[in-house]
Amino acid sequence: MTIHEQYMQRCIELARNGAGSVAPNPMVGAVLVHDGKIIGEGWHQRYGEAHAEVNCIGQATQSGQTGNLQQSTLYVSLEPCAHFGKTPPCSDLIIKHKIPKVVIGCRDPFEEVNGKGIEKLKAAGLEVIVDVLKEECVELNKRFFTFHQQQRPYVILKWAQTKNGIIGFKSAERLRISNEFTNRLVHQWRSEEAAILVGSNTALLDNPQLSNRYWDAAKQPVRLVVDRQLKLSSSLKLFNGEAATIVLNNVQQSNEGAVQYEQLSGNGSVVQQVLQALHQRKLNSVLVEGGAELLQHFINEGLWDEARIITNEELIVTDAVKAPLLQNELQTEIQQLGSDKICWYKNKLQNPIIHPTS
Ligand code: AOF
Ligand code: ZN
Q: Closest Cα to residue 186, out of 207, 204, 164, 208?
């Protein structure tokens, strides 16, 4: 690792402290280095509050390092912003403090910034180095990047299957596939995403709560169900008011109460319409939990980023619903939790494109 990469690695580490508190904003970390020593560190801590650079420069000035800023290098994992949002532009702050050199992890895809921060710094005569540990910095904010570059949320597909590839029974009889450790992990996954999605069959047959009960209870994703003709009964657990629920349908629109109804345009791909609805609501990631048919639609249209497949290697069931089949998958990780094997996949196609219908 070069020295730039080492400091950028530290920025990424700092940025991760913001996990769970900054969405839909990106996680960002910054480090100020003077004469081979770190004189300030900071990260974006909470949505709507100070950006990483502000906290980093603030720490340096508060510890009496103001005089050294003019001979320092600022490392930051994302391009400093150029716009007046909830806070003033970070690029102006850097210029004001006469910091001569800025090393950036990756460009900010948000249209108000997208290169303008870099241009501003360069125009003021600063030395700017871009794309240090770019891949890691983009991966850190995969949800944010997907949302801004593809105008859709980051899509994670998840299912549990038996050893012979069965996802559930055809009737309302519940098939328990994953073990208690894996169930807990799934709740952690729910806590990490903005939304969870299921199809109406799954809502009806499984009657899932779709809430996060075994992890940080403060983090409840929005629950979404596709129920085109509004056939689901209001007695289902999805409608218990424990977390917000959105019913995507072809019939009605209403935004009152804990259950909201969002009308889909009715034409074309349901997957694309669902993703557009999520985008409009600024929900930048979604965990798709079934059923097999809905999951397969996402796969067939190439509109997925990650798949996490849990296989109970000791269970075999016959005459039941077959699990979806992935396409263009790249296996990245395998984890074993007791009898469950968890395989992580990425979509090999770099940019699954969404085609807006309107
Ligand atoms: C930075 N440093 O630490 C972060 C940045 O709503 P605001 O004003 O907080 O602006 C949010 C946008 O600012 C967000 O979409 C992204 O483009 C950028 N985030 N920029 O210079 C930071 N978190
Ligand atoms: Zn900023």
A: 208
